[in-house]
Amino acid sequence: MLVLTSLCFIAMVLFCLAMTKHREQVIVHEVSILAVRFFRPLAWLLLSFTAYLSVELYGWSIGPALLFGALTIAILLLTLLLTYRAKIVPKLAIVMSLMASISIFIS
Q: I want to staple 9 with a disulfide (CB 3.0 to 4.6 A). Which of 2, 36, 44, 74 is the partner?
């Protein structure tokens, strides 16, 4: 479940960075327009990989429910962070990606 939540959080951060308003809120320095154009497709790719991983790990009976639960947790966390501590979102996304990769390799 930690892997699913981490991957969903990273995908939601990429969606957040694809929007100008949130990108200005989260990142201080300017990002190239080429990188911004890849944020949304990369987020959809990561979200579809998370859905595939959820079904592979837990099966069709419980996998989609766990996926939507992890997505809800990730969106709630990102919403609270954008409201109160927007500057730590990129750092937390990096930490969550490291946690997800370590969890994948361990199990």
A: 74
